[in-house]
Amino acid sequence: MIEQSTVEAAVQECSQASDETIENVFNIIGAFDIPRYIYNSERKKFLPLSMTNFPVPNLFGTARDKAELFRERYSILQQRTHRHELFTPSAVVAHPDDSKSKFQLKTIETLLGNTAKVREVIVLGMITQLKEGKFFLEDPTGVVQLDLSKAQFHSGLYTESCFVLAEGWYEDEVFHVNAFGFPPTEPSATTRAFYGNVNFFGGPSSASVKASAKLKQLEDENEDAMFVFLSDVWLDQAEVLEKLHTMFSGYSSAPPTCFFFCGNFSSAPYGKNQIQSLKGSLKALADIICEYPSIHKSSRFVFVPGPEDPGPGSILPRPPLAENITQEFRQLVPFSVFTTNPCRIQYCTQEIIIFREDLVNKMCRNCVRFPASNMDIPNHFVKTILSQGHLTPLPLYVSPVYWAYDYALRVYPVPDMLIIADKYDPFTVTNTDCLCINPGSFPRSGFSFKVFYPSNKTVEDSKLQGL
């Protein structure tokens, strides 16, 4: 027999779920609000922080946090690689020829335990430079010196602290690398097939929004939805404000769903008057927005701080602009949100990550070997980020991270869209069902920006030059 109270609870839960989907249409998730999941290799599952013995994240990380940061990056890539068809062990009954095409991952410990030469071996590990000019491969079981004299590099930007699949042979405590490749990427649909509808992304929904047919329907029906992305919005430059005027007047008849403004918000960084002048610049922007009532009423404004905006230095994730700077703007433009860098946007069933960092230059400067095809840097770059499952696969001295919040920079499962706002030339690249775009620097690229239509997942290149 089912009691009345049970039925009432079930009905209430069902009715709540339908209300909840209305809330879930558009959410901005700050880096410090992202849920933390830790991979458990015994259960082959991602467990929420509350089910583990890990402490709650703290900005002042411990030594354990720093070690855990690399261990977690490794375990995520290891479980993903093991699942890939090239590394899945064949069933015993399979045809004997099939097993030859499969590869087997070895740990560094198994190499170090050998006195004889080990031929044709593949190891997943992290490139490090423990001694000046000498590269090593490191994994949780040990470290081995590399000989890269004959190494071939597959496409991608291979930097220190990035994880690679190294193929080669081992002799006399040195691993001679024949080829370097990145761990294979995995579409988010494949990841979710293994881990169910766990909400890795964050936001109010208890389960992943991917499973919601109602939200999918809303997404398809709302063909007018439009996101506008700009980077390096230098509000202290009269020409930039003039171009924003032009842009708003163009969009006033059909206001976009949301404008995403990425920093830096000043052309000249730092200086004792920066905060005061930024307040004035934001006030000037608010006045321009108020001149267009349709945009003021209908559009949202999201601000992502840049590396040279006022804040606590260059450590990631970066908190929003301080409330005392943005207070006046928020009063004049109530539909505005000042968020963290990076941040996440969930629109209906789509997951979007926004990151403002001049990353392309940093990664090219720190390459172990620069790619031969110089023309194709955007493709190399996007492949690297998605293969590493992380926004900054760089040494911590190049791109510092709050150790305990490293998980906020993960790109796993792969989102639907990744916006990396960089001063590098604008680009749009699709890889592993993920649309990766760089709107480019607004003032430096002839006032170019990107427009995204979520209903059909298309990106439009736009420019205000000569208007």
Explain what this protein looks like in three dimensions.
There is one protein chain. This protein has helices at residues 4-23, 63-83, 96-100, 108-112, 188-195, 213-221, 238-251, 274-290, 293-298, 323-332, 359-365, 377-388; strands spanning 26-30, 37-40, 45-48, 105-106, 118-131, 134-139, 142-147, 152-153, 158-159, 163-171, 174-181, 227-230, 258-262, 300-304, 336-338, 343-347, 350-356, 367-369, 417-421, 427-431, 434-438, 448-453, 458-463. It contains 12 helices and 23 strands. It is globular and about 75 Å long. It is an alpha/beta fold and 467 residues long. The strands form 5 sheets. The protein has a 6-stranded mixed sheet with strand order 1-16-17-19-21-20, with helices on one face. The chain has a domain at 206-463: 4-Layer Sandwich (Purple Acid Phosphatase, chain A, domain 2), CATH 3.60.21. Pfam families: DNA_pol_E_B. GO terms for molecular function: DNA binding. It is found in: Nucleus.
Annotate the secondary structure layout.
Blueprint: H1 4-23, E1 26-30, E2 37-40, E3 45-48, H2 63-83, H3 96-100, E4 105-106, H4 108-112, E5 118-131, E6 134-139, E7 142-147, E8 152-153, E9 158-159, E10 163-171, E11 174-181, H5 188-195, H6 213-221, E12 227-230, H7 238-251, E13 258-262, H8 274-290, H9 293-298, E14 300-304, H10 323-332, E15 336-338, E16 343-347, E17 350-356, H11 359-365, E18 367-369, H12 377-388, E19 417-421, E20 427-431, E21 434-438, E22 448-453, E23 458-463
Parallel strand pairs: 4-5, 7-11, 8-11, 12-13, 13-14, 14-15, 17-19, 19-21
Antiparallel strand pairs: 1-16, 2-3, 5-6, 5-10, 6-7, 9-18, 10-11, 12-22, 16-17, 20-21, 22-23
Helix pairs in contact: 7-8, 8-10
Protein name: DNA polymerase II subunit 2
Keywords: DNA replication, DNA-binding, Nucleus
Family: Belongs to the DNA polymerase epsilon subunit B family.
